[in-house]
Design goal:
Strands 1, 2, 3, 4, 6, 7, 8, 9, 12 and 13 form a 10-stranded mixed sheet that branches. Strands 5-10-11 form a 3-stranded mixed sheet. The protein starts with a helix and ends in a 16-residue tail after the last strand. Residues 1-37, 293-297 and 301-305 have low confidence and may be disordered. With 305 residues, it is α/β, with parallel strands linked by helices. It has 2 domains: 40-116 and 252-289, Periplasmic binding protein-like II (D-Maltodextrin-Binding Protein, domain 2, 3-Layer(aba) Sandwich), CATH 3.40.190.10; 118-244, D-Maltodextrin-Binding Protein, domain 2, CATH 3.40.190.10. Helix 10 (264-274) packs across helix 11. The chain contains 11 helices and 13 strands. 40% of the residues are buried.
C-alpha cells in the first residue's frame, strides 16, 4: 500500500509538471504570435542605380526598428514602377521619370525624390587613353545607330567599336536615349551587346578594350571612364560639379514610388531617406543630396503629368 501511494504521488507530480510546461508552451506561442502580428515587412525593388542607397538605408533603419524587415531587390526602374503601381511592392525605386503611359496606367503613384544623378557616356580605359576623351551628341548617336563603327572615325585607334546597350526597361537607358534621340525607347541597331544591371555593364566594358556604353556617374572608375560631351568648342565633363551647376546635359532624379501617399512604417522609411542621415547615405553612395546647395533643377527625360 505505501508503495502504491508513492506511485500515485509521483504520477500526480508528473501531471502537474506537464500542465505547467503546457501552459508555458501555450504562453510562448501566444507571445510569438503577438510579435509576428507586430512585425512589418516592407517590400522594395527597382533601379540598380538607386539600389546602393536603399540597401544601406534599409540596414540602418532595421537596426533601429527591430520589428521591421525590409526586403530589397533590384530588377530595373521598370520593375520598380510596375511593382509599386500594382501594389506588389510597398516601395519601387527608379532612376528615371514616369512616362505618360505609366501615369495613365498607375494613376495612384506618388513620387518622392531622394537624390540626383547623371548618366555618362563611358568607354573602356584603353580607348580613353588612346585619345578619345570626348564625343559630340551627334557622334554618340551615330555610334548607337551603327553609322560609326570604328574608333578611328572619331580620332581613336583602328579598332571596331563594341557598342553596349541596356535592357529596354532600364532607367539609365531611358534617360540616355531621351537625350540622344528625343525618344526614351529609341532603338540602337549599332549595339552588339545588351546588359542589365550597372554591375553587369560596368564589368563588360572593363573587360573590353574597345567598348562604349552608358552608366551612372557614380559607377565610373579607372577601367570604365566617363568622357566629356562636346558642344561646339566646349567640352562638358561628367562630374558632380557640372551636374550641380546644370551644365551637364544628362541629369536625372532618383525616385521612390508608392501607391498613394506612404503611410505607417513605409512613410517612416521614406522619411528616413529624406532625413539628414539618409541624405548622407545618398552622398556617400556617389550621388547628389536633394538638400545640397545648387541641387539639380534640370532633369533629362522628364514628363509633365
Amino acid at each position: 500500500m505505501p508503495r502504491r501511494s508513492s506511485i500515485k504521488s509521483i504520477l500526480g507530480l508528473a501531471l502537474i509538471l506537464l500542465g505547467v510546461v503546457g501552459t508555458v508552451q501555450i504562453g510562448l506561442v501566444g507571445v510569438t504570435s503577438a510579435l509576428a502580428q507586430d512585425s512589418t515587412v516592407i517590400r522594395v525593388a527597382g533601379s540598380t542605380t538607386v539600389l546602393p542607397i536603399v540597401s544601406r538605408a534599409a540596414e540602418r533603419f532595421q537596426a533601429r526598428n527591430s520589428s521591421v524587415k525590409i526586403t530589397v531587390n533590384a530588377g530595373g526602374s521598370g520593375v520598380g514602377i510596375h511593382g509599386a503601381g500594382t501594389r506588389r511592392l510597398d516601395i519601387g525605386f527608379a532612376s528615371r521619370e514616369i512616362t505618360p503611359q505609366e501615369n495613365n496606367r498607375y494613376a495612384s503613384l506618388t513620387t518622392t525624390v531622394i537624390g540626383r544623378d547623371a548618366v555618362a557616356c563611358v568607354v573602356s580605359s584603353e580607348i580613353f587613353h588612346s585619345g578619345v576623351r570626348s564625343l559630340s551628341k551627334q557622334q554618340i548617336g551615330d555610334i548607337y545607330l551603327g553609322k560609326i563603327t570604328n574608333w578611328q572615325q572619331v580620332g581613336g585607334p583602328d579598332r571596331t567599336i563594341i557598342v553596349v546597350d541596356k535592357e529596354t526597361h532600364r532607367g539609365t537607358r531611358h534617360v540616355f536615349m531621351q537625350y540622344l534621340f528625343g525618344k526614351s525607347n529609341a532603338r540602337a541597331p549599332g549595339a552588339r551587346l545588351v546588359t542589365g544591371s550597372n554591375n553587369e555593364e560596368q564589368a563588360k566594358i572593363a573587360q573590353s578594350d574597345s567598348a562604349i556604353g552608358m552608366l551612372s556617374i557614380a559607377w565610373i572608375n579607372d577601367d570604365v571612364v566617363g568622357i566629356g560631351i562636346r558642344e561646339g568648342r566646349q567640352v562638358i565633363e561628367p562630374t558632380l560639379k557640372n551636374v550641380r551647376n546644370g551644365r551637364f546635359p544628362i541629369a536625372r532624379n532618383l525616385n521612390l514610388l508608392t501607391a498613394g501617399k506612404p503611410k505607417g512604417r513605409v512613410k517612416q522609411f521614406v522619411d528616413y531617406l529624406l532625413s539628414e542621415e539618409g541624405q548622407k547615405i545618398v552622398e556617400s553612395s556617389g550621388y547628389i543630396p536633394i538638400h545640397s546647395p545648387h541641387a539639380v533643377s534640370k532633369v533629362a527625360g522628364s514628363h509633365s503629368k
